[in-house]
Amino acid sequence: MYVICPQCSFYFKIEISGRRQQTDCPQCGVFPGRPDHEGGLIVKVVCRRCALGYAADILAPAGSLHCSGCGAAPKQRDVRLLKRLAEVHQMRSQESSSRARHSDAKGRVNLNDMEIDRHLLWRVPVSIAVAYCCVPIRFENDVLTVALAEPVREGVLEDLSFVLKCRVHGAASPRATVERAIRRLYGTDAPA
User: Whole-model pTM above 0.90?
Assistant: First the structure.
């Protein structure tokens, strides 16, 4: 089943089977579904018959997933794939709500209460962690999330993305807390 990315309009095939998963846009990494105000999940789907892109609510009953151009219904395997895509979205929403407990409304994280996986430390070498005063806290869907000391300098996320060769998202934390976390995770040679 082909979908159109809502952010960059890239046309790509979604796959969810076994170990092969392609749910996010390979161009920009955005999930193709967008929640609407009525509780649905809208995905721009490409019709197999007329190749028209049309918006479909994948949480709606399967009978309502018809092409707006030619009226064709998607094949059953495409309907199952869209339902699996909805499950992926719901699973990610539950994970993000559980992560939200560790952050406040302004996107700050509390490193004191957070359990950080030590396997993340190889993604950010100690020299980078000290230079940018940051600690890796999560890596999923090819995006590294780091806790950065406040105030966050302009352009630091772009610099980290370039240096670490991956997309980087940031969450702010007090400088003293980040420096304590660097010392705790990387050892006593980190800055005081």
Answer: no
